[in-house]
Structure formats: structure tokens, C-alpha cells
Amino acid sequence: STEPVAGGSGSFNRRKRNSLYVTVSLLVVSLLILTVGLAATTRTQNVTVGGYYPGAILGFGSFLGIIGSNLIENKRQMLVASIVFISFGVIAAFCCAIVDGVFAARHIDLRPLYAGRCHYYAKSTTQPKVSQDSGTSPELGVGFKKRLDSHLSERV
């Protein structure tokens, strides 16, 4: 005899609820990625940052997942589209992290380091003597501060 298993729909509802929790949390994370990426893009003037692209792609994929899990017809197609966009978003996140890192490394101004004005001092238990010199670099045409207790030169 073929009797339906008692509690079968309860298991399905539990899995659906858990998948909605994961999808909504992915949407929240993707919106966080999007806002941090947009904030970084608007604050940097000389370095192009593309870190917000994966947030948009992941957000769209998780939005499709939320819609697809609540559909009755075309559920499978919507969930497949969601999985595809989420996969592209994860791949884009890795690619953008690498590209942004390369662009940031290429745009670091190394002239103060090559001029010998920036030195690395290992941290010790005793406080180093702090001496600040201010001046203008003739090579760079900019002002600078040199602190002996810091790890890098600061431009004024």
C-alpha cells in the first residue's frame, strides 16, 4: 500500500525556510559588499576600484533565489538562474579582488621610499624617541613629516 509519509510536508517546509534564511543572508552580505565597494570607489580618486560589481551580481542572484523559492510555476528555471548569477558573483568577487589589489599595488607612490625618507623600525617594549621633521622635498615638490616611531612617511 502506498501511504504518504507523515511529516513529509513538514520536512519540505523546514528546508524551504532554511533556504530562504540562507538566501536572505546572502542578499544582506551582497548589499554590504555593494555599499563598501561604492564607498571605496567614491573615496579613491587616483585608483579605480571595481569591488562593487560582485555585490550587484550576488544581490541579483539572491533576489532571484528568493523569488524562485516562492514561485509555483517556473520555479526550476528561476532557481537555476539564481545559481548561475550567484556563481558568477563569486567568480567576479575573486577576480575583482585580484584586479583591485594589482591596481592598488601599481598606484602606490614609492618615491619617498626610494629617496630614503621612509624607514621601518621594529616595535620594541621601550618607547622610541619621537622626533618630527617637517619640510619640503625638492624632488617631489610636496611637504612631508617624518616620524621616527612610525612605519611610513606621511605627506602634509
Automatic annotation (TrEMBL):
<feature type="transmembrane region" description="Helical">
    <location>
        <begin position="79"/>
        <end position="103"/>
    </location>
</feature>
<protein>
    <recommendedName>
        <fullName>Transmembrane protein 255A</fullName>
    </recommendedName>
</protein>
<keyword id="KW-1133">Transmembrane helix</keyword>
<feature type="transmembrane region" description="Helical">
    <location>
        <begin position="20"/>
        <end position="40"/>
    </location>
</feature>
<dbReference type="InterPro" id="IPR028014">
    <property type="entry name" value="TMEM255"/>
</dbReference>
<keyword id="KW-0812">Transmembrane</keyword>
<feature type="transmembrane region" description="Helical">
    <location>
        <begin position="52"/>
        <end position="72"/>
    </location>
</feature>
<comment type="similarity">
    <text>Belongs to the TMEM255 family.</text>
</comment>
<dbReference type="GO" id="GO:0016020">
    <property type="term" value="C:membrane"/>
</dbReference>
<keyword id="KW-0472">Membrane</keyword>
<dbReference type="Pfam" id="PF14967">
    <property type="entry name" value="FAM70"/>
</dbReference>
